[in-house]
Amino acid sequence: MSAPAEALVPGARYAVPPAGIVSTGWPRVRQTCNNIGWRFDPWQDAVGRLILARATGGKWAADLSILSIPRQVGKSYLLGCIIFALCLLQPKLRVIWTSHHTATTEEMYESMKELAQHKRVAPHIAKCIALQGSRWRIIFRNGSRIDFGARERGFGRGKAKVGVLVLDEFQHISMRALSNLTPTTNTAENPLILCAGTPPSPHDNGEAFTMRRKSAIAGISSDTFYVEFSADPDADLDDRKQWAKANPSFPKRTPERAFLLNRKVLDDESFRREFMGVHDEANTGGIMPKWDDRGNVKVERPASLVVGLAGDVDGEWGSIGSAGMDDDGRLIVGAVKRQPGQGWLVAEAKRIQDEHGYLVAIDEKGPLSDLLVDLDTAGVRYVGLSLTQYVDACQSLWRQVEDDQLRHPKHPELDAAVRRAKWRKVGDRKAFGRQTGDISMLEAVTVAASQVLAAYDVLDSIL
Asked: Exposure string (b/e) for 413-450, b if CB count within 10 Å is 16 or more?
């Protein structure tokens, strides 16, 4: 049984340590910082101790640490001090600091440059330089260095022997970006990955953050350290006690005026996430709470199958889904195939249609609009949905679930897409939108289902 969060990190809602801790490298790092003149609040001292916890043999107990902390608490200061001390203590250490946006990365570099210019640090610094392509570097005389760059510009991919990888603005990182950056540490002897951010918004591709948070809280991860500072989910946004619960630096280091200013500027949901650290628990079950009730049934192959094509808005994933009708007049939907990229979709749609004769459906205004010419060239017979028709299709699929007129053989990728979905506004109506990641499999079955239902509507009118 793990210790309560408060006992591990003062003020934390969650503090999930890694397994197998036998010691910590924090005292040496903290002493180095104290010699320079850098001091830490109690929560920072506790978090630093767990970030640098060691297992048997001296390896880091947690090679991945995730900090879910609101704005203006002091997480960047803590991480900055840690990596500076590590660079001073470990010659030739290579550190990469990435943020999502270039502006944020540059701001962090400027803050770190100020640390480098401290009178007790400056003698150990060779130079601080701006490189081409919005990249920056701090070089230490002992051969260590810190490179700064923005993920939106592809920074970090292809690098090697990175001893410490810092992923700031973790709420913006996709699973694909994370998988591209993590290998940079593969050849390092004892790598450390530090992630920090505020809770993802419905517009962020925060799947990596959300999945790792759930795993940590559920006790699934044994080699990850997770800490979260947040107010109560139903907190009054103007309650100063809740501000203090979310931000251990309030009001000593983060004054009331900072909260009041951002309370004016941000809408309620943004303030709840960014200044009170509250994750959007309400949407984690998806927008179709009855979805699971309609699944896990044995489904015979339905008649009048249609396949739908869909792709992630970032171009990272492509999906093919299917829809048909069973003998009882219920809609049947299912996953066919999902894989990285989208160029494969045309050839696969052609193969399926040639072999089975199924109609192909696609949202012609969606992320795959640039494939329409390729479908024509390949001779694929398809139906393109307009924006209005796609919105209708989303509403219709949702209604089929609500009214118990839909069945699906459970499939992890389709189920995951449903859980990730939220409603997004389209004029005065709404359609499916992503909450924490790719929902292309849901969109694929949605466009396919629209054509099955349309065909049956025509049949009903004739009969």
From this structure: bbbbbbbbbbbeeeeeebbbbbbbbbbbbbbbbbbbbb
Between CA 142 and CA 421 the distance in angstroms is 49
pTM above 0.70, yes or no: no
Burial 390-400 (b: 16+ CB within 10 A, else e): bbbbbebbbeb
Instruction: For tokens 């440059």, name the residue.
Output: 113
Which helix or strand (DSSP H or E) is residue 391 part of?
helix 387-402
Q: Left (φ > 0), alpha (ψ -120 to 50) or beta: where does 138 sit?
A: beta
pLDDT, tens digit, 9 for 90 and up, residues 25-83:
999 999 999 999 999 999 999 999 999 999 999 999 999 999 999 998 999 999 999 99
Tokens, residue 5 = 């969060």
> Other CB atoms closer than 10 Å to residue 84's CB: what's the count?
27
pLDDT tens column, 216-230: 887 777 889 999 999
How far is Cα 397 from Cα 137, in angstroms, rounded to an integer?
A: 51
Q: Which two tokens stand for residue 446?
A: 């949605």
Phi, psi torsion values for 117, nearest 5 degrees? -90, 0
Q: Are strands 331-340 and 429-434 parallel, antiparallel or unpaired?
A: unpaired
Residues near 36 by beta carbon (within 8 Å), at least 6 away in sequence = 118, 120, 121
Give the three-state DSSP class for 57.
Answer: coil
